[in-house]
Design goal:
The complex is a heterodimer of chains A (about 270) and B (about 575). By secondary structure, chain A is mainly alpha-helical. Chain A contains 11 helices and 6 strands. Chain A has a two-stranded antiparallel ribbon. Chain A has a two-stranded antiparallel sheet with strand order 2-3. A two-stranded antiparallel sheet of chain A has the order 5-6. In chain A, helix 3 (about 45-55) crosses helix 4 (about 65-80), helix 4 crosses helix 5 (about 90-100) and helix 5 crosses helix 11. Helix content of chain B is about 10%, strand content about 35%. Chain B has 10 helices and 43 strands. The longest helix of chain B is centred in the N-terminal third of the chain and has 21 residues, at about 1-20. Chain B is globular. Chain B starts with a helix and ends with a strand. The chains are: A mainly alpha (about 270), B mainly beta (about 575). At the A-B interface, helix 1, helix 2, helix 4, helix 5 and helix 8 of A face helix 1, strand 23, strand 24, strand 29 and helix 8 of B.
Chain lengths: ~270, ~575
Amino acid sequence: MLVVGEARYSILGGYDRLATTLGVCLATEMLLSWWLRGRVANVASAYITGISLALLIKPQANILWPFALGAFIAIASKYVLTYRGRHLWNPSNFAIALLVLLASDSVAILSHQWGNDIRINLVIWAFGLAVAWRARVLHVTLTYVACFVVLALLRSLIVGGPLLAELAPITGPMYQLFVFFMVTDPRTTVSTRRGRMIVVAIVALVESLIRLAGDYQLALLRPFYVSPPILALAFVGPVAMVLDLRRAGRQPSGFTGDSLIGGQFRK
Amino acid sequence: MRRVVVIVAFVAAIVAVVVLNGRAAGSVASGSASIRLNEVARANGIDFVHQSPTLDPKVQHIAAHIAALGACVSVADVNNDNWPDLYFTSSRFGAANALYLNQKDGTFRDVAAEAGVAQLNRPGEGAGVSMGAVWGDYDNDGYEDLFVYKWGYPQLLHNLGNGKFADVTEQSGLRHWMNSNGAVWLDFDRDGLLDLYVTGYFRSDIDFWHLRTTRIMQHSWEFATNGGKNLLFKNLGNGHFADVTDSMGVGSTRWTLAAAAADFNDDGWPDLYLANDYGPEELFLNHEGKRFELARAGLEDDSKSGMAVAVGDVYNRGEHDVFVTNISEKGFLFQGNNLRLNFLKQLGRFKEVATGVVADAGWAWGAQFGDLNNDGLLDLVVANGFISADSTRDYWYAMSKIAGAQGNIFEDAKNWPPIGDASLSGYERSRVLLNRGSAGFEDVAQAAGVTDRLDGRSVAMADLFNRGVLDVVIANEKGSALVYKNESSPGHWLELKLIGTRSNRSAIGAEVTVELGAARQRQVVDGGMGFCSQNDRRLHFGLGNQRLGRVTIRWPSGTEQVLNGLTIDQLHVITEPAH
């Protein structure tokens, strides 16, 4: 899909970007896991992070450092920003949020791409739904989408603009990557099904607040409204994780709630 | 301990992000520069202020966005006195275009009304508002004629040679309703007659004052093909033009904003290079005047928002390189301008090399190459800024809502958020990019004295005062025209005015290569270049410290003329040899 997408819509902006991001992600994962944990980790997660970064980062012309540094920071964050042995941020979410906030002169995030073509998006939606269903995180995706739609309606009523303008973002490629592959990351979401749905609803709410800040031109928040969903998740996700881990730490040994095993949720 | 090392590396990477981001602005000169430009428009009699079009109330909520076009300038020696004159377009019904005749004393006088080229923006039968103009002697009578492209019916105005113009649009066959923002004269079949390529932006079935639908916008931000159709008109030689678009294969509908014609692949025939909004650039290679073919030259998958095409020999390689302006906005979008080095002969493609100040100038519009300090290297001037309104309100966020959406949402203007009085990449400054050869370009605008923050659209260059230096003219949307008089320390130079005999008399399409020591710089007489602009058709070469060698002229007819021993620091008028 990447090759076809690159050939048809230049979704990567060059294979050098993909090679840089993937290479650094994989190398960092292997090096840090071996060095800190004494064994080379499965690199599937690093691979997904690399793909995600290569697709979502859209930097200034002809510079590669955001991909290289973004990839390193993303993977290293899993080993540095931990709480009770768990990392708190989705790696690509952390790296993109950091780049957008600290390097806005050089880096933007995917805004329009893939030709704005509904056929391409239908393929991604179908693929994403299948992956989310198989990974048992479809409830996360659907909760987020439902919340987004309701909040878009509310925003439209508040700001007075066209409803379709408020709904429009979720039909684009950034959101497809976000709702299927980022907000659903099993390793950085809370342990219960209800908790995950609440958290993702809060993410949508915070995103809406950022969007309203954009509508009302709160200059102080301008760095945030270039990418509301990514930043909303970067703020809400770790807080939810910490609270969830603390709650889990207080649970008696016979706790029978959901648990995370092998990257998938099990009842 | 190992974990500490990883933490240190992690923090160091974050610090590196901050440091590298700080260097993103590129090289900006703060001290003195070898280029000095002084703005003299009003002092020299040019008081033109552009007015934007008013549109159908159905799109009033984004009229500021749609209608932010039409401030254009083109240069020609209208009365053959060897002093360049200036024509500015305005774009509101009732607003006058201006023709400033060079008074040879450093001042200009607007003679548009008496010449009959002022009142071209009117509703009704002659409907339309001006979006730019190009000059060319289509009937080879020795006087530069004027083609004004519009949103509406374009107009061809025949220069009668007595200071007046006659509207010959109807009999010329050029009365086709278009929403055009660009045109170039070229002699694509080399028959000695100037043909005309007119670009379409919005679809030609759209009448902006009587909209039947609001579904008028692009259906993709990247690969839109629902723009107006570009048209190629062949000059039949009897004052008539014939639409040969389809037979020649150049009817792109990719929202073309600008076009330039030059022989990019060195086969002796003028090709067409298009800057398309919401799409990839296009190069149509001319196959001996019989047909054009869309080249696969590394352009097709690099989609941006092309606004202008400037052609120049950036590194004195004897090639036509291309600079195309695009959009950059901190945090939201880094399309970056394209500087494409021409390797068509060697690799069959262009190589994109823009970085730093060349790539990211803001919301860039018009641009032109020209050797502003006569050092033998072509510098760049780029006009920037889209909509300067309320500086505390910004439309970028609102636009970003729909930018990522499905095309059928934003294709309908009614789904766009209202722009109100918000700015959109407003108050950006123009760039003057000094070419330092292998050391790259340096932004010297501030040091050179170019500090305006108007919404620049069109840039043209000419030696307005016949001093051997290029001056810069900028037309600004809803703003005053600016004339930057070049006060740089004069170096050695050479200027050539070409007059065709077997070729079109304007010599548009003539290619001149000047040997500068071991290097050689190539320029083309343009029939429209940049964004809605046209440079003086006299070619200007800075010589730097190099010895002037041979000067080779390849006329549009195919005749090659070699000149040796030309005197430097003067204008040479060269007439095409009979054989």
